[in-house]
Amino acid sequence: MFRTAIPFIAGVALLVSSAAQAATPCFAPTIAHAAKYQQLDIMLMVNSLRCRTTADDFQADYDTFRSAHRAEMGQKIAAVLTAFSQRGTAAQARAELEQARTVMANRAAQPTAMSCADLRQLTIMLAAAPEDKVAYAADVLLVGTLAVEVCPLELAEAALAR
User: Fold this and answer.
1) Selection from 5, 60, 39, 30 nearest residue 157 by Cα
2) How far is CA 27 from the centre of its chain?
3) Is 21 buried (19+), middle (13-18) or exposed (0-12) by CB count in 10 A?
4) pLDDT tens digits, the chain, 162 residues: what are they?
5) Residue 50: how many CA atoms within 13 Å on its side-chain side?
6) Terminal-to-terminal C-alpha distance of the chain
């Protein structure tokens, strides 16, 4: 009996796991890109707080970055909220965005290879950079750490359309 129960339990676990994965929402590459842009902002914010007691305090530089890119950040947040709201109410979309931001902040708080001096220099460069360069930096710096899932088929279609 025990020998037949193990494959049965494994099969049920696989089914439940597959159903949970299928239920995980995924997003178009443009929405993932918008989320990544915001994740870069959160990474800089969290690290500016972490580095504030060091010789490489860059909170003022982060404030300059935020001011320089406020309009783009607002547009990206609005795009993410719109995508989230397509699956529920506005309140649910805001809650989902806050959950994603929490994940982003928690990931940004993890140890990084970049020192406070590196992060300060990056923030200064990004504050003066145009939006496309900031977006490129987000793509390069945040590979594999995105807080929202990209739909694989849509990602492939976007890559082939280039």
Assistant:
1) 30
2) 12
3) exposed
4) 545 544 444 443 433 333 334 445 677 778 888 888 889 999 999 999 999 999 999 999 999 999 999 999 999 999 989 988 888 888 998 998 898 889 889 888 888 889 999 999 999 999 999 999 998 898 888 866 666 676 766 666 666 776
5) 19
6) 56
Which token pair is 54?
Answer: 């060091």
Q: What is the phi/psi pair of residue 86, to 5°?
A: -70, -15
**Alpha carbon distance 12, 68 (integer Å):** 52
**Which residue blocks in the chain are alpha helix, DSSP H?**
2-23, 29-50, 59-68, 70-85, 90-108, 116-128, 131-141, 152-161
Listed in sequence order, the residues at least 6 apart from 35 whose beta carbon sits closer than 8 Å to its beta carbon are: 27, 76, 80, 100, 146, 147, 148
The DSSP call for residue 151 is P
The amino acid occupying position 156 is A
DSSP conformation letters of 109-138: TS--SS-HHHHHHHHHHHHHS-HHHHHHHH
Give the rounded distance of the alpha carbon of 104 from its chain centre: 6
Give the model's pLDDT for residue 155. Answer: 62
- To which residue do tokens 């783009």 refer? 72
